[in-house]
Description:
The chain is an alpha+beta fold. The chain is 39% helix and 26% strand. The chain has two domains: 12-132, Trna Endonuclease, Chain: A, domain 1 (3-Layer(aba) Sandwich), CATH 3.40.1350; 209-329, minor pseudopilin epsh fold, CATH 3.55.40.
Amino acid sequence: MVKKIVKDFLYERESYLIRGAIFEVWRAFKGIFKEKIAENALKKELQNFGLGIESQKRIPIYYKGEKVGTYTPDQIVNGAILIEIKVKPYLTKEDERQFWYYLRGSQYRLGFLINFGSKKLEIKRRIYDKAREKYKSIEADRRRLSTPNNADVSVNQRSYQRISASTNKGFTLIELLVSIFIIVLISGIILANYRVSGQQFALQRSANKLAQDIRRAQQMAMGAAEHAGCPAGYKYGYGIYLTTSANNQYILFADCDNWKDYDSGEGVETIKLETGVKIKTLSGNPLTITFTPPDPTITISPSAPASIQLGNDSQTKTITVNSAGLIGIQ
């Protein structure tokens, strides 16, 4: 299976949690209520994930660096991500175009346009970043070229550099040795902190990836995705299999026989944890989390809730999954 890798995924953790919250609301309501009810339910679900939510906050809209009006999104997540909620038969091109222009005119880089009203849940994740940076670069160049006496400034700078070079004196031997010692000391501190930070980030990424893959198994079951190793047309489930005997990896599998567990030959993908990260403990060993369509229904074996502890030499992260399919990271 070819796995698509996305580099520099903007607000990866928040995006995963937002999608999870959206699916929870969709499973509960199926788009039968008005926008305000869907908005309140989504706010509660996002807060359950530990995200900060601001509702109906007025934000400024800019044109060429000047404020020209205001826009009130339904929600702002962690002060960085816009959420716009619709409950209508389907999203139109005008809905998407309007949301895009709101995002472009604001200071925010990422937004989600969600429609709970269609027969199929619609989620539009939009990024407006590179175009804004290009625009800012063009404006900066324009202002620089329009600044008077540019030539005089350049001449004065070169004159200052020549005067500074002519008056600069060399280091003494003691000053040079002290400087080298300070540089070596600072480099050692930075390197030690870098290693610790690298291990911490690797553990956090691995925990987020595992939670995301559990959610992916749920979505594959919900969408009745087919697997080449299973009978054609059979609506089987998907799940995640973990064991401490292979503590550097876990398996995404297709439940071809509908026994709610993992058997040899049912593997879809073996996912490796990042270097230095291991499966420390499991609430059951082995532990199987299976989702069965159409809802999908969750089965945790040997028993719910599931608890998965990942760790490195000094830190741990715990991923939990309850009987309703709600995923948490601690």
